[in-house]
Amino acid sequence: MNGISFCFSRLGWLCLTVSAGTVATAAGLNDFAGTWNVANFSIPSQLTLQKDQNGVVVNIPEAMNFGYSTGALAVQSNGTFAGNVPDPISGTAVPGAPGVVVLNLDGTNGPGAIAFNANAAADFMAAGGVFGGSSQDLILALRAPTAIAPAELAGWWNMQGFQTPAQLVLEKNSSNRVVNIQGLGQFQTMAGAMSLLANGTFSGNMEGPFTGTVTSATNGAINITVQDQSSTNARTLFVNAGKDLMVLVEGAFSPNDNYQDVLIFSKAPARLATSEAAGPWRVITYDAPQLTPISNPNGLVVDLNGRDGFGAYANPLVIGSDGYFWVQGDAGQGVFSAGANGLLTASVQDAADLLALPFYANAAKNIMTSITTRSWGTELLLATRAAAWPGPLQNFALAASTPANGMITIAWAAAPDRALQVSTDLITGETLTNTLGQHSYSEPATNAGPRQFRVRQPAP
Q1: Can you tell me the distance from the alpha carbon of 84 to that of 74, in angstroms, rounded to the nearest whole number?
Q2: Residue 453: its pLDDT value, please?
Q3: How far apart are CA 115 and CA 101, in angstroms?
Q4: What residues contact residue 449 under an 8 Å CB cut-off, 6+ apart?
Q5: Nearest-angstrom CA–CA distance, 74 and 34
Q6: Are the C-beta atoms of 273 and 319 separated by less than 8 Å?
Q7: Which three-class secondary structure state does DSSP give residue 394?
Q8: Confidence tier at 128 by pLDDT (50, 70, 90)
Q9: Where in the chain are the domains?
Q10: Distances from the Cα of 117 to the Cαs of 81, 165, 262, 317, in angstroms?
Q11: How high is the pLDDT of residue 4?
């Protein structure tokens, strides 16, 4: 349909934003009603080095600011909620921007409000950030199915893990000076896959082969027994109502173990084309650094490289039908290409080199996860397909580059039946027919007068 659209530019060619398109009905609060299982994963948002008069580290106050927990919320159709996560919590959920649900919390001791990215099926929400205190949290909430049998989980599951230490252990000499920090090597990522059969048995490989059995499944909690090369363990995973995404948080701290991790299991779709990822998304970025201690000639720790590499934030992401995407607010762009078993590879040019980031989609194709190790640390990217913009407008992430080599380039998320229009008066517009289905257009930066651009469906 041809909707009324608008966009604007300035002589400096700053970001251009909104254009017309067809939309679907957004999820209402009643779609979120039900039991939500919640997993929380926390690490420090920063590390502060307290030093003596000689510049030697004597303490890191945030060394124990790691942790994980689970809980559950009951959400009503009017948006009110209450539960334990694990501390008692209550409040009201309200719609935010497209693809966002804001949880307003009762009481005065917490963060007040937390914005969650929600998928269009309203059965998964994620938040990442610093919500009071000095920790950065990753909060994953999964709406439980009303009923589930192990056979409904049958399929191929991609597995990704994000691991950190359970705490940093400061080894000190008799003068209370730090000589070593245990746990720095636990910042790492994992990847693997498993095949789950209709009878509830499964086998796979992640950091080594394993087998197991689903022992029970109720209220969105999947209880399993897992056997690897050295031990047999019981675990509890949370599954969403779509039965195509599972989450596990776990950890241990002892003389032999010092770790915590969040594992995300994505049931692969039967088939996946690049064009099926097209549309508006929201993405959580959750970063941890690669930390390296620096010692003086006497073997005393004086600094910690990489400690400014923590981070957690959310951005809108728009993907075009040809895979071209734009992360708004982060100036990130690249191209997705579909592979086998739910894989979508994002080719991204960063400041140093060209990256190929593997994302794995769930069967409903409304959640994508990428967990990777980079040169500077580890990164978890979690994208949720957002409900479309309300009304006759659609966000194509229209943006313009600063002039270079005498040319300016306009880029947007492509759609097969959309083309770029240019206007000099914001009333009439000329369709650039050679841009139909494309995602970029260049012209001389010296073109006379201000020019406005929008993406629009050409008139038949």
Answers
A1: 9
A2: 84
A3: 6
A4: 424
A5: 6
A6: no
A7: strand
A8: very high
A9: 29-385, 391-456
A10: 17, 27, 18, 12
A11: 26
Give the C-alpha distances (Å, rounded to integers) separating 21 from 1, 268, 421, 423. 7, 30, 13, 18
Distance, in Å, from the CA atom of 103 to the CA atom of 96, rounded to the nearest integer, reads: 10
| Strands in 258-310 per DSSP E | 258-267, 279-289, 292-295, 301-305
Mean pLDDT is lowest, of 65-74, 128-137, 294-303, 424-433, for 424-433
Task: Please state, in angstroms and rounded to a whole number, the distance separating the CA atoms of residues 185 and 455.
Answer: 48
Instruction: List, in order, residues 6 or more apart from 27 with CB less than 8 Å away.
Output: 118, 120, 121, 122, 387
Q: What is the DSSP string of 399-422?
A: EEPPPBTTEEEEE----TT-EEEE
Q: Which of 202, 228, 229 is nearest to 213 (CA)?
A: 202
pLDDT value at position 406? 79
> With pLDDT > 70 as the criterion, what percentage of the chain qualifies?
89
| Beta strand pairing call for 399-400 and 407-411 | antiparallel
pLDDT surpassing 90 at residue 364: yes
Burial letters 203-216, b for 16+ CB under 10 A, else e: ebebeeebebbbee
Q: What share of the chain is helix, strand, coil (3-state, %, to 5)?
A: 5, 55, 40
Q: Is the pTM of this model over 0.85?
A: yes
Looking up tokens 């993405």 gives 283
pLDDT band at 350 (very low <50, low <70, confident <90, very high): low
Contact 263, 245 (CB under 8 A): no
Distance CA 104, CA 42 (A): 20
- Provide CB contacts within 8 A for 282, sequence distance 6+: 99, 100, 117, 314, 315, 316, 317, 383, 384, 386
Per-residue model confidence as pLDDT tens digits over 254-277:
989 999 999 999 999 999 999 999
